[in-house]
Specification:
Largest sheet: 3 strands, antiparallel
Radius of gyration: 16 Å
Helix content: 40-55%
Number of helices: 7
Structural class: alpha+beta
Strand order of the largest sheet: 2-1-4
């Protein structure tokens, strides 16, 4: 209950603080590439419930529907400002709305694509699916794109075992540092 209340307060504050920057980014995406400003992807949420998660579109509209790490020559699909959006993690800002709505949390395992069957199966086996997916998480700050799926799930299981408000605050703090340094981003 306290975690959900914290999520609502943080999401509301973030929506207020980032409203104008998000509007500017949306305009920049529209001006620099064909297609909508937001990209909506089908994700798996808490207890396997599907939901639609927005991101600022950093890839061209003709990009194959694959996880980024599986794209051959993924960088060639980036929009003119896509690399900047990803390296700064600005592309993730629209997900604050999902936190406010209760589909996501500020901290938790990153939401899997519905096509990531191997990740979903390992999460199910480890009892990770009971968590609301997060904007950031323990696996995110310990490797992000460089982690294998088993390593990611191992870190998510560690989060499951250590979860607390204090641990969440540590993860948020380390996320801010990672974002400022653009650590662990491969695409």
């Amino acid at each position: 209950m306290l975690k959900r209340l914290t999520d609502i307060v943080l999401a509301l504050c973030a929506l207020l603080v980032f409203a104008i920057p998000m509007a500017i980014v949306a305009i920049a995406v529209k001006l620099t590439s064909e297609g909508p400003a937001l990209y909506w992807s089908d994700r798996v949420g808490q207890n396997g419930k599907p939901f639609r998660m927005p991101k600022f579109r950093s890839m061209r509209i003709d990009t194959p529907l694959l996880p980024t790490h599986m794209l051959t020559g993924g960088g060639s699909y980036l929009t003119p400002i896509g690399d900047l959006l990803r390296r700064s993690s600005v592309d993730e800002l629209p997900q604050i709305w999902c936190v406010f709505k209760g589909e996501m949390s500020v901290v938790g395992p990153r939401p899997a694509l519905t096509s990531q069957h191997d990740l979903l199966a390992l999460r199910q086996a480890e009892g990770i699916n009971c968590f609301r997916p997060g904007l950031t998480g323990w696996a995110q700050i310990n490797g992000r794109d460089s982690l294998s799926i088993p390593e990611k799930v191992m870190l998510e299981a560690e989060y499951r075992d250590r979860q607390s408000i204090g641990f969440d605050l540590l993860i948020i703090w380390r996320t801010v540092l990672k974002v400022l340094r653009a650590d662990g981003i491969s695409h």
